[in-house]
Amino acid sequence: MTRRASIETRWLVGMAMMVALVTVLLLPSVASASAPVIEVGEPFPDLALRTLDGEVSRVSNYRGTKLVLHVFASW
Amino acid sequence: MHVPGWHESTKELQRDGKLQMLGIIQEQNPDRCRLFMQWKQMEWPILVDTFDQLEVSVVPLTYAIDEHGIVRKAGLRLQDADTIEESFVEKTWPEPDVSPSSPDEQPWRRAARLATSGEASDVAEAVRSFNQQVERDPEDGWAHFRLAAALRLRYDSSGRQDGDFQRAVDHWQQALEIDPNNYIWRRRIQQYGPRLIKPYPFYDWISEARTEIAARGEVPFPLVVEPSGAEIAQPARELASADRVQSPDPRSRVLQDGVGTSGRLIDIETTAVPRVIKPGESLRAHVVLRPNLELLAHWNNEVEPLALWIDVPPEWQISSQLLHAANGETAVSTETRLIEVEIASPEGVSTGGVTFPGYALYYVCEDENGTCLYRRQDFEINAEVASR
Fold it and tell me: Which of B22, B88, B308, B367 sits at 20 to 30 Å (Cα–Cα) from B379?
C-alpha cells in the first residue's frame, strides 16, 4: 500500500468512526429509550390500548389467528 | 383510500375466519374514526393510539402478523391485498422458542391510555405526566408531542384551562423542531393551521359520510368535537387577501364587556397556529368566544351577527379584517363561537414578537330574563417571527 493510499484509508476509517460516534450521540435526541420495535421476525409491540368502545385491549388478544394490522388515521 | 381497499379485498378471508383485520389509529379525535368506519361499513376492531405509543412517524403502515404474534411482513401496500392469501394466510411459520410476553407497563403509558377516554380527570393526569417528562428532558420530542395531545384533549374537555390550545400548538411545534421528519407531529399543526401549509383538507369527508349514512336509514355516530374551520378547509397556494374595509368601531365608542354588569359576559381566547413563524410564512388565528355560564350569559340572536375586527401591521396580509359569526337558530343560545382567520407575514419582516390587536362586537344578555346589551371586547393575537 502506498503512503498516500494508507493515509486515505486511515482518513476514511477515522471519518467512519466519527460518523458512528456522532450517530450514537445524536440518537437519544430523536428516539426515546423505550421506543417499541416493529421489525419483521420480532413480536409486534404488545401495548394495552383502548378500543373505540372504551375497553382495554392488546394486539396479543388476537394471537391464534393471522392478522393484518393497519396503523392509520381517518384524515 | 387504503383502509376500505384492504377491507374489500379481504372480505372473504375475514368471513371464513382465515384472517383478522385490526386497526390502530393515530388520531387526536378517535370518534371521527368511528364515524368513518360506520360510513365505510367496516367492523374491524380498532385500538386508539392518540399519544402514538407505537412511535410511528407516518401513516398508513400495514403489517402481517402470524398466529404467534410475530411480524412476518411490514410495509405492505394496497396491491399486496390481492396476493395476501398466498403470500401470508396460507403460509406457516415455526412457533417461536419463547412466547412473546407483554412488557411491564410504564405509568405514562397507563396515563396515556386512560386519557383517550376524554374524561377530564384522566386527561388532567396525562397532562401532569407528560409535563414531567418534558421537564425531565426538554429535548424529548415524543414528550412534547404527547403533552400537546393531552393539552388539546383537555381543551376539548370540561376541565379546559385558559391557554390549553395555544400550549398544545407550541408543544407540537417544539416536537417538530426536535425532529422535523415526524409526519404525525407535522399533521397536528396542519390540522389546525393555515391553508398554505395544508396538504389536503383533513375532515371534509364528514359531511358526505353523514349524508350517506342517513340515506341508509342509520343515525351517524355523534362527534365530541365538530370539525370546522381549519379542520375542513381546502389547502390554498396563496392567501386571498380581502379588500380593506372600515373598522366598525374605530374610536372605541361601544362600551366594553363588563361595564355595568357583575362581570365579563363573554370569554375570549385566541390561539395562533403555529405561534412561531418564519418571515414569509403564515399562521391561522383561532378566536373562540364563550358565554360566561356562571353569569348565565347568552347570545342574543334576534339582532345583527357578532362582528370581529383584527388589525395587522402594514405589509402583513390578512384573509379578512372584518369577520362575522352566524347567529344561533333560536332567539337566545349559549354555544361557543369560533372564528378563524389567516395572517401572512411579509418576506422582509424583522424577527421578534408580534401582536395583532382586535375586538369583537356582540349582542349578549345577562341572564335568562335580564338585560340584553351591545358590547365590545378587545383582544390580542400573539405570535413570533423567528429567523430562518
Answer: B367
Across the interface, whether the CB atoms of B48 and A50 are under 8 A apart is answered: yes
- pLDDT on residue B102: 67
Write out residues in chain B with pLDDT < 70, as ranges: 1, 98-103, 241-242, 368-369
CA distance B23 to chain A (A): 5
Q: If pLDDT is split at 50, 70 and 90, which confidence band does A31 have?
A: very low
Q: Which ipTM value was assigned to this complex?
A: 0.87
Interface test with B, best of A29, A44, A74 (most B CBs within 10 A): A74
Q: In this structure, is residue A68 part of a structural domain?
A: no
Instruction: Give me the domain span that covers residue B286.
Output: 239-385
Q: Which residue has the cell 370569554?
A: B267
Best interface-test mutation with B: which of A37, A46, A68, A69 has the largest number of B CBs within 10 A?
Answer: A68
**DSSP string of B77-121?**
-GGGGGGHIIIIIT---PPPSS---PPPPPHHHHHHHHHTT--HH
Angstrom distance (rounded) from CA A65 to CA B157: 38
Identify the CATH number of the domain in which residue B11 sits. Answer: 3.40.30.10
In this complex, the residue of A32, A51, A56 whose CB is nearest that of residue B45 is A51
Question: Last residue of a domain, which of B192, B215, B247?
Answer: B192
Position B220, amino acid: P
Instruction: Give the number of domains in chain A.
Output: 1
